[in-house]
UniProtKB/TrEMBL annotation:
Location(s), subcellular: Cytoplasm
UniProt-annotated binding residues for GTP: 17-24, 63-67, 117-120
Organism listed in the record: Arcobacter roscoffensis
Residue span, Tr-type G domain: 8-175
Stated family: Belongs to the TRAFAC class translation factor GTPase superfamily. Classic translation factor GTPase family. IF-2 subfamily.
General function of this protein: One of the essential components for the initiation of protein synthesis. Protects formylmethionyl-tRNA from spontaneous hydrolysis and promotes its binding to the 30S ribosomal subunits. Also involved in the hydrolysis of GTP during the formation of the 70S ribosomal complex.
Region feature (G-domain): 11-159
Identification of the protein by name: Translation initiation factor IF-2
Length: 294
């Protein structure tokens, strides 16, 4: 590999935890936004991602739903990340989806930080959370283990600077590097068909820089990047290393989890996508032929 153009890239940090333990609220506090207040039933139902800048350092966050029904999204969230933050409400402790995200986090092999949230509450009990986690092989640093536990409050903002510092520290240790001059490669974290806009893919750039006008292929779909909006909905011309945004211009809605790659020409992008689509169709056909022969 030619690594002469490699640069340090920002970390991608996935936030996971049991329903209502305060994942979205924590991100709102970090971003000074109000996403949680606008959610139907107060429940997150999709993955969303945000690139924030704190003291000149960028961090891309991935927010995941905590509701039991959204296990696949949690698994997907854990697969795109560099660092996992497990959020546990200090007044509620380890719950079923906390257990689930512990196993996603362990499987990801990423460094894990535990954010013990809602420490502003009367019933908050950080030691209870620590001992519940220690029983699950997630022993806090101050108890002789290797997991950092940080008490935070999405309500008051307590501990959030600590949390951000810790993320940047973990990210430094990881020595995350990529090549901003390479052909863009990105992961689709969410996708949908939007009325009036067509297929929209929310992506995180893994390598290279994605620009308006790039020819892209994404699984069996392709197109030319017509527009990019950042996580605030503002149009931008490009997305750099680890940055997230939404891309318009694909001919079809790609599956979440798909990889998007920039190509030299629209012909190339079309050829790759068409071949893949043919391959898929052939597979389907052979499946149905087998069934009818049985
Ligand atoms: P899902 O995405 O649906 O799993 O929930 P979530 O983990 O994103 O939690 P959310 O941010 O929706 O917060 C759930 C509730 O807890 C809301 O009513 C928040 O206002 C409240 N809450 C979140 N963080 C804190 C906190 O630090 N202190 C207090 N007192 N309340 C909090
Ligand atoms: Na919620
Ligand atoms: Mg949420």
């Amino acid at each position: 590999i030619d690594d002469s153009n490699f640069e340090t890239r920002p970390p991608v940090v996935t936030i996971m935890g049991h329903v209502d333990h305060g994942k979205t609220s924590l991100l709102d506090k970090i971003r000074e936004s109000k996403v949680a207040a606008g959610e139907a039933g107060g429940i997150t139902q999709h993955i969303s991602s945000y690139t924030v800048e704190k003291n000149g350092e960028k961090i891309t966050f991935v927010d995941t739903p905590g509701h039991a029904a959204f296990s696949a999204m949690r698994a997907r969230g854990a697969s795109v990340t560099d660092v996992v933050i497990i959020v546990i409400a200090a007044d509620d402790g380890v719950k079923p989806q906390t257990e689930e995200v512990i196993s996603h986090a362990k499987a990801s092999g990423c460094p894990i930080i535990v954010a013990v949230n809602k420490i502003d509450k009367e019933a908050a009990n950080i030691d209870m959370v620590k001992s519940q986690m220690a029983e699950r092989d997630m022993t806090p640093v101050d108890w002789g283990g290797d997991i950092e536990f940080i008490g935070v409050s999405a309500k008051t903002g307590a501990g959030i600077d600590d949390l951000l510092e810790n993320i940047l520290l973990q990210s430094e240790i990881l020595e995350l590097k990529a090549d901003p001059t390479a052909k863009a490669k990105a992961t689709v974290v969410e996708s949908l068909l939007e009325k009036g806009r067509g297929p929209v893919a929310t992506i995180i750039v893994e390598n290279g820089t994605l620009r308006v006008g790039d020819n892209i292929v994404c699984d069996t779909t392709y197109g030319r990047v017509k527009a990019i909006t950042n996580d605030m909905g503002k149009p931008v011309k490009e997305l750099g290393l680890s940055e997230t945004g939404s891309v318009l211009g694909l001919s079809d809605v790609p599956a979440a989890g798909a990889i998007m790659v920039a190509q030299d020409s629209d012909k190339e992008a079309k050829d790759i996508a068409t071949k893949r689509a043919e391959h898929e169709r052939a597979k389907e056909l052979s499946k149905s032929t087998k069934v009818s022969l049985e």
